[in-house]
Structures are given as C-alpha cells and as structure tokens.
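Incident log, support desk, overnight shift.

02:14 A customer reports that sequence design results differ from what the structure should imply. Their input is reproduced verbatim below. On-call engineer (initials T.W.) acknowledged and began investigating.
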C-alpha cells in the first residue's frame, strides 16, 4: 500500500534546458542512484542467503532492478528515494518473517502496478503468473482502504482475506504496513492519525491471528505512539528508567530457582518475558493501576527439556518452596488445555522485597506449540469468544512455515497453498463507504434489501463502479454499488429465481403474498357485490364447496381469478345459481350470518354445553374472538335469531357488554363433566428463524395427542419469525401441555394462546 509517495522531478538548476551543467547534474544523480541500488542489492542478497535455504538470485535481482527503474523518479514524504520503501519491505519479508524468494520479489514489486506506468501484464510477462497474482492481490487490498473510514474492523479483516488467493499477499501487506509505520513521522498529522487507527484496528490483530506476535507488538506500539503520544512517552520513559532495576530484580529472582533446578538435574532455560508498551497501557486502564503496580512487568518463563508433563508440576513445587505463591493466580493449562491446544502452568509468586512475579512453566514441546500461533493468545487475550477452526488451522500452517523456512517444505507448500477462508462471503461497499457482508453469489437485489427493505422493494437498477448493470448481476468483494430506486417499482416474481439471501427472498415473497391477499379481498368484494345484485345469499361454506367444482380449485384462487379478470363473473354467478338451487349439488340455500354477529359459527350444535345449569335445545356456537375450550370460565350472549354465543369471561367483548345495556343478554353457561369434541384455538409463536423450524413445530403439534392443525401462517423479519396457527384441542389441559412442548423447541422464545 503506497502511503507516502510524492512525485519529485530530477533536480532542476537555473541553467537553460540541455545545458552542459544540467547534463552533469543528471549524470551525477544517476550515478548516485546506481550506487545506492548496488548497495541495496548486496544487502538484500545477503539477507536471502542467510535466511532462505533455496532462492532464485536472478529473480530477486531482476525484481530489485525493475523496482528501482519504476520508482527512480519518485520520492517519499521523507525526501528519500521511493524505491527504498519496497526494498525495506523486502528486507522485512526476508529477515523478520522469512518465507521464500517469491515473497521477496513480490515485496519489491508490490507498489509498481499501483503507482507507476508498469502494468500487471508486464509483471506477468517478466515474472510469471505466481508473482503477478500476488502483486495483484496486494494492489486490491490497497484499493480497499483508499478514502474509506474504518468502522467495522473485523469485517475489513475478513474482506482482506476474501479478496486474496495466496497467503503471501497478506504477509507482504504486514511488512508494507510495518515499514510505513516505522516512518510515519514524515506524514501530515491527519494522515498519521488515520493510518495509526487503521493499523491498530485491522493490521495488528490480524497479524496476531497469523502468529506474528513480534509484528503485532510493534504495530500496536507504533500506532499507540501516534494516537496517544503523551501516555506512550510516559510509559516508555518509566520503563527506560527502571530497566536496569527490573533486570537486576529478575536476576535475583531467577538465581535461587536456577540453582535448585540444576541441583535436581533438570535441563531447562529461563527467559524473561518482556511486556510491550501498548499492552502495559491497556492493563493500566483496565485495572486502574500505575505502571509500577503491574506485577507482570516482572515475568519469567521456565522451559524444561523433557517429555514428561509431570515435571512441570515438580518445577512448580520447587518455585513455590522458594517463593510464596498467590493461590488465586494459579492456572493449570496442562491438565485442562485451552481449546486452541495451549498448555502451560501460570502462577504468580511473591518475590524479594514483596514484589509479585509472574511465572510460566512448560515443556519444550508445549513452548513450541505456544510459539506457533495456535495458542498465540489471540482468542482469549482479544475478547474473541467464537472459536474459528479455519484460523486455527491456518495459523498452524503459517507458523510451521516460519519455523521450517530452512527446509524445502515451505517452497512446496507455497506452490500448492490457496487461501479458502471467508470465501463464502463477499464484502461490498455503499456509495458512502459503508461495508455490507453478503453470501457469495449475492446479486444487486440482495444488496438492495441488505441496505433496507424499502430500498429493495423499489429497486429498478444499479451502478457498479459507475456502470449500469442488470439486477441479476452477481457481486464480488470490493464492489461499490449504487442502487437506483423508483416509488412506482414493485418486486417481480422472477427475482425469487436469482436472489440468494434469506432476507431478500422472504421480503419478496411477503410483498407478493400481501399483494395477492389484497387481490383476493378485491375479488371477494366483487363477487359479494354481484351476489347481492343477483339477490343470492350464500354463506362461506357453500362458496368454498362451489369453488372446488371450478377450474380454480379453491375459494382463494377463485377470488384471485375474479380480481385478475381471468374468469367471467357472469358465468360464475350463473354456475353458482345452479349449484345452490333445489335439486342441484346443494339441497338448500344457506344464509350467511348477519353483520351484527360476525363471530357466529353454527357448525357445533348440542355438543354438551350446559345453559343456565341444564341442557337445552337452544342453538349455540363458540365465539372466534376468544375461542373458548373446556376448562375456560365461560359465559353466553343471547343473540337475535342465532341462539347463544359462548365466550370466555375474560374476552374483551364481554368486558365491553358489561359496561352498557347489552349486559342483560348475558346468561350463565358451563361445560359438562365430560366432553369428547375438539375445539378450535389460536396459538402465537415467536422465535429465531432457522432451517427446519416449521417442520419441528408441526411435528411437535401433530405428535402430541394427535392434535390437528387447521391453519398455520408465519412471517420472518431480521432472522426472527412470528407464527400464528389454529389447532383443535380437547380442553385447557391439552392446550397448556401443547404450549409447554412448543416452548421447548429450539429457537422458540414464546408460545402463547392467541385471541384474535
């Protein structure tokens, strides 16, 4: 990522163009540049020979030559030749995170395509597909961070990974950022702040995930130095002032431990465990302490050359016999390793003069695992609660490469390794720079619904990179998408064929279903008006039966066909008249309930309800507003011409009647001692939407006491569902047990009786 470049022409003198003095000056500049080039080439080749067992010297030399030629007229903000930056990055790759010769060559070329006249194809012709692919990946990542505010650090880290196929792209970006941070003082203050924040939020924790602990520490300290210079200087000053005292104190602590371990015949190594400045600052803030009060500024690690884990406990016993341990600070990660495989004993003891010292005890094998990054503390030191097995395996692989860089293994691994992390996600930007994460294969419509449901519903087109594209266009990571909307637009049923996100598909279906529902009501209204005009009085049950005899098949589709004018309404009226006339399919004409009794259901007669303490021949039915079932406290309402309507006493309609003159129509009713009938009741369920939820819910209902489902509808919003169903139950006990079982279904947060 080029962050400090400024184009500076060759020195210009006051002499006329083409003068002898100008030619001499130019020649001297070129000679100076060539001298620097030769010096850097020698330095780089020596670093490669020392750290890389096998490397292509000709390739590295050619890469440095091209790097020098491409950048020779460029200068950094510091004033030095720009090619010094890619050279420094290549030295970091060769020395501090040594990998292979391809990485060194790519580090030299990582800014060439982005900032000079050289094209990617020219790099490909000179160095092949492998080098060109890595350079291209590094360029793409640089583009991500241009003019974007880092507000979702973890998403940006995933975005970086999703856009590259080769792990070496990331390693070069770490080296690039590390050198930029080492020279950040030459940038303007506002650019320093932005780069430091970006480094602290994205690059440092990302480097830690790679197992690059030293790189991570330096990136953090360099960022902290910019973001909070006063605190950085205060801590650094105190550490410098106390360094000799701390080293002497650690020597005093270690001396008796070393003597006792030698006496017991152990082979071991005792090392200090330095703390970096940013880590010290975080601990000071978290614990509310001063630097001198932090016990783990004094820390040692005892590494035993043994394969017997029990030796660690024996050494702990020796340390505890010399110094008093702090019981609450003891942690046994050997018997109970961390999920990432980390093993060690952690303890804190009271050293000389009463100062606390942190001690870690582990075998050599445990130390090798811990140093590999599998247990580089990234999960439990950075508040990451979700284990990422892909990262685990990747960190293991990268760390092994670092440790084995002198063998042939890294070369073979690099030739075959491809990065697969987060390849099932894409990361797309809005015009304002907001980052949206979508499944791989997502389209313009998916992106529109991710922004907002109303945006998705009104989408008529989009621009990707400033160019108009079709709605079915599949997006890729790094795209910047501008959605074009219209208030007159509506979802097209064809959208369901290419959208991939649950939100988009659900909202499209919801809109189309609602549109269909409105049309059904429209068709129903048309039919009712024509029936009234024809003076035909037909109830819903008869209409439903009639609809099954038509080409529509059911009443809903019949109403829809009427609304869409797909059937002739006059033909429907004629066929319906024949259907209900005496001698026709129906023996008699039924009359629908009047408006003043919308909840009447006359399908249940004399099923055993007791009216005023006795059975009677009175017609009665059960109210749909409260759906009473045996076990409920009920009351009856005497209706005009339609018998008694049975309500629950808690029904809101009963409460309203008790406030006016209609309360005189209330009569006492009760359930008989036994009741064999089934009763309709409503249930409402809330919870987290997931695959198989509907299947699990219907299975629980049908499997309990052979419960039958009459209807079931479900809506989902933001990964939550709202379900409404009507079922047949025998009594309140049956209902309560059913609700209890529904509440135990995974993902269900609420299951209650529904009274609408």
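02:41 Re-run completed on a clean worker. Output:
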């Amino acid at each position: 990522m080029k962050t400090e470049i400024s184009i500076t022409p060759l020195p210009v003198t006051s002499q006329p163009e083409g003068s002898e003095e100008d030619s001499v000056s130019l020649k001297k500049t070129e000679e100076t540049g060539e001298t620097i080039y030769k010096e850097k080439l020698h330095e780089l080749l020596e670093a490669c020979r020392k750290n890389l067992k096998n490397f292509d010297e000709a390739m590295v030399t050619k890469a440095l030559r091209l790097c020098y030629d491409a950048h020779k007229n460029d200068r950094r903000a510091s004033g030095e030749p720009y090619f010094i930056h890619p050279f420094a990055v290549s030295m970091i790759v060769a020395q501090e995170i040594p990998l292979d010769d391809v990485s060194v060559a790519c580090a030299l070329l990582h800014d060439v395509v982005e900032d000079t006249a050289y094209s990617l194809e020219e790099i490909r012709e000179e160095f092949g597909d492998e080098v060109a692919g890595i350079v291209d990946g590094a360029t793409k990542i640089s583009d991500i961070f241009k003019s974007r505010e880092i507000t979702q650090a973890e998403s940006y880290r995933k975005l970086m990974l999703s856009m590259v196929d080769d792990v070496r792209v990331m390693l070069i970006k770490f080296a690039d950022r590390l050198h930029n941070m080492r020279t950040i003082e030459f940038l303007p203050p506002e650019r320093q702040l932005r780069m430091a924040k970006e480094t602290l939020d994205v690059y440092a924790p990302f480097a830690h995930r790679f197992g690059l602990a030293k790189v991570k520490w330096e990136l953090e300290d360099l960022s902290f130095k910019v973001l909070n210079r006063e605190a950085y200087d205060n801590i650094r000053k105190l550490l410098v002032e106390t360094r000799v005292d701390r080293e002497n104190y650690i020597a005093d602590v270690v001396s008796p431990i070393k003597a006792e371990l030698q006496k017991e015949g152990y082979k071991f190594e005792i090392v200090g465990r330095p703390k970096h400045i940013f880590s010290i600052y975080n601990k000071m803030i978290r614990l509310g302490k001063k630097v001198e009060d932090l016990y783990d500024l004094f820390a040692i690690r005892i590494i035993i050359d043994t394969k017997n884990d029990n030796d660690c406990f024996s050494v702990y016993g020796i340390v505890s016999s010399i110094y008093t341990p702090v019981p609450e600070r003891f942690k046994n990660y050997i018997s109970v390793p961390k999920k990432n495989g980390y093993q060690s004993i952690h303890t804190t003891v009271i050293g000389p003069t009463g100062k606390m010292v942190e001690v870690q005890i582990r075998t050599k094998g445990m130390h090798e695992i811990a140093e590999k990054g599998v247990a580089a503390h990234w999960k439990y030191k950075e508040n990451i609660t979700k284990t990422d097995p892909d990262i685990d395996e990747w960190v293991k692989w990268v760390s092994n490469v670092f440790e084995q860089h002198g063998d042939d293994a890294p070369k073979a691994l690099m030739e075959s390794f491809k990065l697969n992390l987060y390849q099932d996600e894409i990361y797309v930007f809005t015009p304002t720079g907001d980052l949206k994460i979508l499944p791989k294969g997502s389209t313009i419509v998916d992106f529109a619904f991710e922004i907002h449901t109303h945006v998705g519903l009104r989408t008529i087109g989009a621009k990707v990179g400033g160019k108009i594209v079709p709605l079915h266009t599949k997006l890729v990571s790094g795209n910047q998408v501008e959605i074009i909307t219209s208030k007159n637009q509506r979802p097209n049923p064809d959208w369901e064929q290419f959208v991939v996100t649950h939100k988009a598909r659900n909202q499209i279906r919801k809109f189309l279903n609602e549109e269909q529902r409105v049309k059904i009501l429209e068709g129903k209204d048309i039919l009712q008006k024509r029936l009234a005009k024809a003076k035909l009085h037909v109830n819903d049950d008869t209409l439903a039966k009639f609809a099954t005899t038509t080409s529509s098949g059911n009443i809903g589709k019949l109403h829809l066909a009427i609304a869409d004018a797909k059937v002739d309404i006059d033909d429907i009226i004629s066929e319906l008249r024949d259907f209900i006339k005496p001698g026709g399919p129906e023996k008699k004409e039924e009359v629908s309930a009047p408006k003043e009794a919308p909840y009447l259901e006359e399908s249940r007669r004399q099923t055993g309800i007791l009216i005023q303490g006795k059975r009677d021949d009175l017609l009665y039915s059960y109210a749909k507003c409260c759906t009473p079932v045996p076990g409920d406290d009920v009351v009856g309402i005497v209706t005009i011409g339609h018998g008694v309507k049975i309500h629950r006493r808690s029904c809101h309609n009963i409460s309203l009647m008790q406030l006016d003159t209609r309360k005189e129509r209330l009569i006492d009713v009760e359930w008989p001692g036994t009741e064999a009938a089934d009763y309709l009741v409503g249930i409402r369920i809330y919870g987290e939407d997931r695959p198989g939820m509907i299947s699990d819910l219907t299975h629980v209902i049908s499997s309990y006491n052979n419960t039958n489902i009459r209807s079931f509808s479900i809506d989902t919003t933001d990964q939550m569902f709202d379900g409404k169903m009507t079922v047949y139950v025998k009594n309140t006990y049956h209902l309560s047990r059913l609700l209890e079982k529904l509440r135990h279904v995974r993902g269900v947060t609420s299951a209650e009786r529904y009274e609408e």
